[in-house]
Design goal:
The protein is an all-beta fold and 136 residues long. The protein has 1 helix and 11 strands; from the N terminus they run E-E-H-E-E-E-E-E-E-E-E-E.
Length: 136
Amino acid sequence: MKVTNLIVSITTTALLGIGFTTFLPINYSKALGIKNDACAQNGFEPHIRAETRNYYIYICSRQGGEGVYFGQPKDQSDGIGPIYGSFEKSNDTGRWRWVFPNGNYSYSVNDKYLVVTKNDEVILREKILSYDDINE
């Protein structure tokens, strides 16, 4: 069974012998060892964690303002990353976004959308459901 988002119930006992239950959200991913700490697992500083209907997105920080992209489909198929990119202002919208070129493909992420292009043609556009900027 493939599990992408599981609420784990952990029952612990405090030093005084009082029991309590804590619920922790855990995202499981198989490709590249991607989990909530995808950045740290791959030697980078976490910066952005985002989610669309079909993907988990992890953007990490590197020195000099460069970003690193890891993407994981929720269906547990192979993920992608690391892809190196930068934070820039869009000529189309005037909004700031992360852009990660990868051959004929480009991955663009802001707080509203994940957009994937191939040869400058949009092949995927998904609304961001959650966007967590770790540095704010």
